[in-house]
Amino acid sequence: MELEEQVMGIIINAGQSRSLCYEALRCAKAGDFSGADGKMQEAVQYAREAHRVQTQLIEADEGEGKTRMTLVMVHAQDHLMTSILAQELIAELIDVYRSREARS
């Protein structure tokens, strides 16, 4: 796979993961926790795929700077990092909404 394709794979999968996390949050706000859980599970799958591609790039580089670093590569890493952060924070927020619902 070409480097550009790999980088786009990270961007697309990380972006989809982040979008699904926010969909899950909207579900939780509406009290639809099974929907929220389903969206989060989907988000995890997309994040795993983005991470898999990132791991391939890291392995190919072998810590020797073999992989050409471009602005798009940095952008892809940023997408992956923010999607992981969104996943972690939104999972916590869903738990908060679930707790509030259980107390009502």
UniProtKB/TrEMBL annotation:
<keyword id="KW-0762">Sugar transport</keyword>
<feature type="active site" description="Tele-phosphohistidine intermediate">
    <location>
        <position position="75"/>
    </location>
</feature>
<dbReference type="InterPro" id="IPR036542">
    <property type="entry name" value="PTS_IIA_lac/cel_sf"/>
</dbReference>
<keyword id="KW-0460">Magnesium</keyword>
<dbReference type="GO" id="GO:0016740">
    <property type="term" value="F:transferase activity"/>
</dbReference>
<feature type="modified residue" description="Phosphohistidine; by HPr">
    <location>
        <position position="75"/>
    </location>
</feature>
<keyword id="KW-0598">Phosphotransferase system</keyword>
<feature type="binding site">
    <location>
        <position position="78"/>
    </location>
    <ligand>
        <name>Mg(2+)</name>
    </ligand>
</feature>
<dbReference type="InterPro" id="IPR003188">
    <property type="entry name" value="PTS_IIA_lac/cel"/>
</dbReference>
<dbReference type="Pfam" id="PF02255">
    <property type="entry name" value="PTS_IIA"/>
</dbReference>
<protein>
    <submittedName>
        <fullName>PTS system cellobiose-specific IIA component</fullName>
    </submittedName>
</protein>
<dbReference type="GO" id="GO:0009401">
    <property type="term" value="P:phosphoenolpyruvate-dependent sugar phosphotransferase system"/>
</dbReference>
<keyword id="KW-0813">Transport</keyword>
<dbReference type="GO" id="GO:0046872">
    <property type="term" value="F:metal ion binding"/>
</dbReference>
<keyword id="KW-0808">Transferase</keyword>
<keyword id="KW-0479">Metal-binding</keyword>
